[in-house]
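Re: folding output
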Amino acid sequence: MQPKNLKRLLRALEQQGLDVTYKNRTYSVRLVNSPDAPVAEVLLPEDFPVEAKALKQLANLASVRHPSGGCVCRASATPDFHPGDAGVAIGSVIETVGQVIPGAVGSDINCGMRLHVVDLTIEEFLAKRDQFVERMKGDYFFGTRDVTMTAHAMQALFQYGVPGWLDAMLDRATGSVVKSDLQQLAQESDGSANARSERIFLGGSMDGNWKLAPEELVPDTGLVRDGGLATIGGGNHFVEVQRVDKV
């Protein structure tokens, strides 16, 4: 099976400067004027609307070269593929040699999903639904959450990851952490098999030196207030409430 009006679609993409083929539900795309660039591929459902802008962004990303010899050697995209505001299509996945492309890393680095389980009935939740929504909007969109941290806590976060940050916060809690159950935080980071911090890849930190981190995030002294920390990010990120009927 092929998408409807495939020939017309491919002609339209060619007018956008793209060399596109379609086979086995996979679009293969490359810039017409970059024949040496790797062919980028994206697997999409047959009825999925194809956006020329997203394909062009993916092809542009695949053609990136560094003057010193770095290059993209492979490019593809996940099925949530759509145009990105910063010039890189959402869902792009690339393999590079000899270069790092900050725009491809994006502002949602380490984006993921977290599940919180609560012991509430549907009736109990619905009774306070409006209050829940207002708090979520305030925390995630209107900056009412206080995520103030000391310079020392941020240094520990960049140098040692989540375990270092927790140790610093236990020594001197700031912001909303003051209202947290510090004993629970300590138990979750105690190094046991079930500790949540143990499940985080590399503890949330890589080998490096905090002095190389952005100065506004990791100063020598004082307090740090970053409105993006501990939020769900932007775009198509979301908070979802679910009920499990059966496992």
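--- second protein (sequence, then structure) ---
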Amino acid sequence: MSINQECNSLKKRFRGFYPVVIDIETAGFNSQTDALLEIGVHTLSMDQQGWLKKESCLHFHVIPFNGSSIQPEAIAFNRIDPFNPLRGAISEQEALYDIIKKVNKGMEIENCTRSIIVAHNASFDHNFIMAAIHRIGIKDHPFHPFVTFDTATLSGLALGQTVLAKSCKAAGLLFDNKQAHSALYDSQKTAELFCELVNRWKRLGGWPLI
């Protein structure tokens, strides 16, 4: 790899971290007790000029884990019927194993040492993913145990907005409120927003560092 290619790499840009955009839909706010219902994941790549872009997507409907709580107000908000057989839902274990396999492959290709979760209000998504990993008993996973990239915080700094829909619109990105609160759609828009924030910083001359 040439010096220019090394500079324009995920490894160099994020100090060895491999960013993975995640959005989840849940049956409540308590990551220890409330069910994880849906996961959307977008991996990212960087071109030879150093521009960040979406790469590939995974999306899963998830079966509530045994003994999990289903909060009626959460279901009313995200309009998910956890027990609808047409969802095609799979277990937390199946979903996370597929995600981890995908992330590990990306880390290997990009020569990164650890993955970092990118999400809007990232502590929420991170807590639920870590709780599921702990429930399943996965010891060797790629995600940083506490560091995240939060697009709500980054948008507050760069755009003066913290709500995902308003942040996207302030960044010049389309946002369809009718599709919101779907893990697939929200992860897609979060990925687009994160790419725009990183690329805008580059366009403004903030990267590479002088």
